[in-house]
Amino acid sequence: MHAPDTKIRNAATAILQHAADNIGRIILGKDDQIRLALTCLVARGHLLIEDLPGVGKTTLAHAIAQVMGLGFQRIQFTSDLLPADVLGVAVYDRERTVFEFHQGPIFSHFILADEVNRATPKTQSALLEAMEEYQVTVEGETRDLPQPFFVIATQNPTHQIGTYPLPESQLDRFLMRLHLGFPDSLAERELLQGEDRRDMIEHIKPVLDGGKLISIQKQAGNIHVSNALLDYVQSLLDFSRNSPMFEFGLSPRGGIALLSSAKALALIDGKEFVLPEHIKQVLPAVVNHRLVKTSDELETKKQTAADFISASVPVP
Fold first, then answer.
1. What are the tens digits of pLDDT across the range 87-111?
2. Which regions of the chain does DSSP assign to beta strands (E)?
3. Burial tier of 117 (Cβ tally within 10 Å: 0-12, 13-18, 19+)
4. Which of 9, 48, 116, 130: disulfide with 4, CB 3.0–4.6 Å?
5. pLDDT digit string (tens) for 123-156?
6. Do domains 1-208 and 223-316 have the same CATH topology?
7. Confidence at 1, pLDDT banded by 50, 70, 90
8. Hey, what CATH class is 223-316 in?
9. DSSP string covering 293-314, please?
């Protein structure tokens, strides 16, 4: 595939940078995380945001939905939430003597699964088919979800009371995992003195719609990747699979996620092709939640899986 036309690509880059600027007025001091969140969206992936309560996870999701102009549904995950509360349910109509399906909140372009790890594994699994195949099967019938379809899930640290850790199969459905962390002192001072961020979200004007977003996603898929960078990605995969530091290595889906994320980031940067820097920038968000460490050595050195892999595999 060839790189997208320069004029079209530049227009897409301008729109995405404008979106990042608007979100940055709400979520202060987190430009890198905002950039990666948009990268995830452009790469047609789903995003997991894991952090302490109160650092802006839900606000970030609301701001992205608003700036993208997408239909939005928020699902508050709790221990008593049932799969039918997410997917929908068939209700018997006595007059027509048929079962009529009532759609659940999953039938929307943009889903915020708030505190997803507070729900039981049975309810968490209701998202698996939707996130991977963009469809749900209810009462034996498969129903397509609207396009584009994007899930942002927030997660509290698993040591907190009332949480159920996401299984590896569920984590693998998320293209990226991000941490927001506390703001720096200047950003926090502005938060303390400024307007309520939730009120500010209502004043954000959408810069995209569903059709434009799908077009941009297709452009990202056409970004050129050299053979040397394909070799680099395969070297990263091979190293993760053969290293004794990890219980198991990255799957082919992990490699595809790494490559699609790098393409999306290259488009956001206005590039015609992927650079090694793009792969290195998306690597932590793409691989850290996919790899289980078997050695305490990395913990001792306070080194993430991505840090270790990146330092061990030479860049072309």
1. 998 888 888 878 888 899 999 999 9
2. 47-50, 72-76, 88-93, 98-103, 110-114, 135-138, 141-144, 150-155, 176-178
3. buried
4. 9
5. 888 888 889 899 998 878 889 999 999 999 988 7
6. no
7. very low
8. mainly alpha
9. B--HHHHHTT--HHHHHHHHS-
* Cβ atoms of 293 and 68 closer than 8 Å: no
CB 46 within 8 A of CB 173: yes
Q: In terms of pLDDT, which residue wins out, 218 or 8?
A: 218
Each domain of the chain, given as residue ranges in start order, spans: 1-208, 223-316
| pLDDT average, residue stretch 236-263 | 92
313 and 232 in contact (C-beta within 8 Å)? Answer: yes
212 vs 19: CA distance, rounded Å:
13
For residues 225-245, average pLDDT = 93
**Structure-token pair, residue 145:** 């979800």
Burial of 24 (0-12, 13-18, 19+ CB in 10 A): middle
Residues 154/114, Cβ–Cβ less than 8 Å: yes
Q: Which amino acid belongs to residue 271?
A: K
What is the reported pLDDT for 295?
A: 67
Q: What's the gap between Cα 121 and its chain centre?
A: 20
**Count of beta carbons in the 10 Å neighbourhood of residue 26:** 23
Local structure of 32: helix, strand or coil: helix
How much is the average pLDDT of 287-315?
A: 82
- Its CATH architecture, for the domain 1-208, is 3-Layer(aba) Sandwich (3.40)
Count each helix (H run) and each strand (E run) in the chain, helices first: 15, 9
Question: Do you find a cis peptide bond into 165, omega within 30 degrees of 0?
Answer: no
Rg (CA), the chain: 20
Examine the pLDDT at 159 and tell me if it is beyond 80: no
231 in helix, strand or coil?
Answer: helix
**What tokens appear for 315 in the block?**
């860049």
For residue 103 the two structure tokens come to 């759609």
pLDDT at 4: 46
